[in-house]
Amino acid sequence: xxxxxxxxxxxxxxxxxxxxxxxxxxxxxxxxxxxxxxxxxxxxxxxxxxxxxxxxxxxxxxxxxxxxxxxxxxxxxxxxxxxxxxxxxxxxxxxxxxxxxxxxxxxxxxxxxxxxxxxxxxxxxxxxxxxxxxxxxxxxxxxxxxxxxxxxxxxxxxxxxxxxxxxxxxxxxxxxxxxxxxxxxxxxxxxxxxxxxxxxxxxxxxxxxxxxxxxxxxxxxxxxxxxxxxxxxxxxxxxxxxxxxxxxxxxxxxxxxxxxxxxxxxxxxxxxxxxxxxxxxxxxxxxxxxxxxxxxxxxxxxxxxxxxxxxxxxxxxxxxxxxxxxxxxxxxxxxxxxxxxxxxxxxxxxxxxxxxxxxxxxxxxxxxxxxxxxxxxxxxxxxxxxxxxxxxxxxxxxxxxxxxxxxxxxxxxxxxxxxxxxxxxxxxxxxxxxxxxxxxxxxxxxxxxxxxxxxxxxxxxxxxxxx
Length: 467
Ligand code: BGP
Prior knowledge:
By secondary structure, this protein is α/β, with parallel strands linked by helices. Helix content is 39%, strand content 13%. It has helices spanning 20-23, 36-39, 55-69, 80-83, 93-108, 124-128, 136-152, 165-171, 185-210, 232-255, 260-268, 279-285, 345-359, 385-403, 451-461; strands at residues 13-17, 73-77, 112-118, 158-163, 215-219, 225-227, 291-294, 299-302, 321-322, 326-328, 335-336, 342-343, 363-367, 408-411, 433-435, 447-449. An eight-stranded parallel beta sheet has the order 5-4-3-2-1-14-13-7. A four-stranded mixed beta sheet has the order 6-8-10-9, covered by helices on one side. Strands 11-12 form a two-stranded antiparallel ribbon. Helix 7 packs parallel to helix 9 and helix 8 packs across helix 10 (232-255).
């Protein structure tokens, strides 16, 4: 049999990612309204998001650097409250103007914009009225999406509906969301979840109507779940966790149904959402064009006999557990980052293969990367070999996955440039470009190319032929 050559497709979207509130700064400028992030509490010892990387004022310089790195795509999010300061109603022209300029700048440098419509920063005015628990937020999101398609749809070909809806539901508090206050907070969360599925479906339908030729998809955080052992109970726990963490968030947009394990979990936990007549049809009719997903690590779980503590203290990649359902355990075969996240490049390939097999849609990686305490050395040098190592191993596995038939259309590591982490400040850096500031000292915010910048530039230039 002829051996297949292993290579990336010619038009592969080599990119990098950011999100608005983590990179832009200018939190109260040019008419921007408050988001839940702006009013949320920042964990002790770390910076808030007010200035971040000051990308709002330095986007031209940043885009020039992205172009120098050779990026074919840049995945960023639009700040809802720059466009609609109150989430709905009054449009802020200045907000439109900023993203117009950013998109034009990217296009002028031949960088494909990949736009996340909503990345954690829900308008505070909507939150005050119940946020995603209120069905009116679905309409507000739909109208916001319509506005984006109207103003930017002529230039943006790739749209992402909601960043990490699954992490918002499971670890919302850690990510800066405002916690549900009802008598049954879990039911409220799954109600919010249902409304987000509806909002997403409406945006997908609208996008197809308004922007022929554009593509749109969901963007959950996906982590393949390993059982701690071959003990059937552990395998059951892995299935449990995977169903509510991963597949729930793709089964809805792709198949238009709640999977049965997730459904029985919601029954057990007394948190089945109220579903109105017609809701499931709306969800079923909207078909995503691709699946975008963020991957940092796999998860490993064991059976839980009912004694484990609840999940809320974990984060995107640290699993605690839910009594009687699953319990997070360390994987003894994996190393960890300085921030305790397991590193699993092979798990990346496993995740890619699983997604391909389950959903049979093109895949786009919208986040993957290593958070570390980088050190700026004499002469403006950052030797982030550990990051190069992490990315190299993941790209290697992506390449093999492609040769195994996975339809991977792009890879956008987190993050294009240093930015403020969701809950661990600016010291947890991910970027190819260093931003000269500390938690509480803004210094000069100057941009410095890290070693990984030059490495990634070469990878892109040779289309991943050598890594
Ligand atoms: C994802 C989020 C990003 C990003 C990344 C790294 O969950 O989509 O916004 O921040 O994780 O996470 P952290 O900043 O917590 O290290």
